[in-house]
Amino acid sequence: MDSFSAENIVSKANQDASYKALFAAPQMMRDLICGFVRDPWLHTLRFETMSAVRSEYIGEQQQQRFSDMVWRVKAADGVTDIYLALEFQTRPDPAMPLRTWTYSGLLLQQLLGHSARALRQPWPPVLQLVINTGQRRWRDGVDLASRFWRAPSGLLQQPPQHQFVLIDMHDELLDNADQGDNLFGILLQFERASQTDQYVQLIERLGRLLKPDQPLYRSWLNWIRNRVKLSDRNQMLSDAIQTFEELSMNMKRVFENYKKQQRAEGRMEGLSQGLSQGLSQGRLESLSLLMVKRFGPLPADIQQKLELATDAELKQWTENILDARQLSDVFRPFN
C-alpha cells in the first residue's frame, strides 16, 4: 500500500527537536497566529519585530523550569511588548493549564525582576499556545478555572483565571490548512498526509514559498526527513539531500523500491502457498485412492471428511492406513 504508517513516527525527542527548529523562524509563528488563532487583534502584531526570549526560568527555590519557546513581539502601537510562549505536546496532559500558568508567572518574574517601578507599571501580556502534535486528539480542558473546586459563595467562589490556546494538529475544524501560502497550514497537511503523491505536492508548495538560502528551508528539509520512515524497513530519506527537488525524487525512488520489494515478497508468498496447496491436494488424492483399494467405495460423509481435513490430518491418516484393519481405524487419534 502506497502509504506511510503512523507506527513509523520518529521518537518524541527527535520530533520535539524538529518542531522547535521549524518554529525558530518568525515566519512560522506569524503564519500560526494569523492563520489559526481566531483573534483579529493578534493579527495586527508587528511580526517583523519578533525576537526570541530565553525560555529557561529559575524559580525562587533555584529550581529550573523550561518552556519550549518564547517570542517577544511589538503590538501595533510599536511600544507594548507581547510575549508568545509555545509548547509542543505529543500527548494530552490534564495538567497543562497549571503548567502554562506556572510558566507565565516564572516568565514575568524573570522580566520584571524586583524593581518596584517595573512591578507598579502594567505587566506585559503572555499568550500561551500549546500545539498537540501527537496521535491522540486533545480531550482535556484548556482553562485553569475549570480545574478548581469552588465554594458556594465568598472569596473562593472565583478561582484563578488563566487559559492557553490549543492548536490540535488533528482537529478537523482547522479548515484553513489548504491556504497555499501559510506554512503552518502546510505543516498541518503534512501531519494528515498518507500518500506519497500528497507529500510530493506539499514539498512542491514549500519550494514556491522558500528559497534555498533561507534557514527555514533547511529546517523544513530536516523536519520532513526526520518525520517520515518508509515501511518497517527503516528506509530513511538520504541525509545528502540538499533541495526540495532532490527530496521529492528521493522519496519517489525509495518508495518505488519499497513497492517492488513488497510485490516480490508477495509473489514469493503466493508461490509458497501454491506449493503448499499442491502438496495437500496430492496427499488427499493419494489417501483417497489407498482407502478405496483397501475398503471399497467411500461413503459421502467420509469423502466430505477428507475434503475438509487439514494437511496435518491427511498426513496422519495416510500413516494410519498402513496398518488399519477397518475404515474407522484410519481416523484413530493422532499418536
Written account of the structure:
The protein contains 11 helices and 7 strands. The protein has a domain at 6-145 and 158-229. Strand 2 and strand 3 form a beta hairpin. The radius of gyration is 33 Å and the shape is elongated. The chain is of the alpha/beta class and 335 residues long. Helix 1 (12-22) packs antiparallel against helix 7 (215-227), helix 5 packs antiparallel against helix 6 and helix 6 (196-209) runs antiparallel to helix 8. The strands form 2 sheets. Strands 1-4-5-6-7 form a 5-stranded mixed sheet, sandwiched between helices.
Write the layout of secondary structure elements.
Blueprint: H1 12-22, H2 26-36, E1 46-53, E2 56-58, E3 64-66, E4 69-74, E5 81-89, H3 96-112, H4 116-120, E6 126-132, E7 165-168, H5 183-192, H6 196-209, H7 215-227, H8 244-295, H9 300-307, H10 311-320, H11 327-330
Parallel strand pairs: 5-6, 6-7
Antiparallel strand pairs: 1-4, 2-3, 4-5
Helix pairs in contact: 1-7, 5-6, 6-8, 8-10
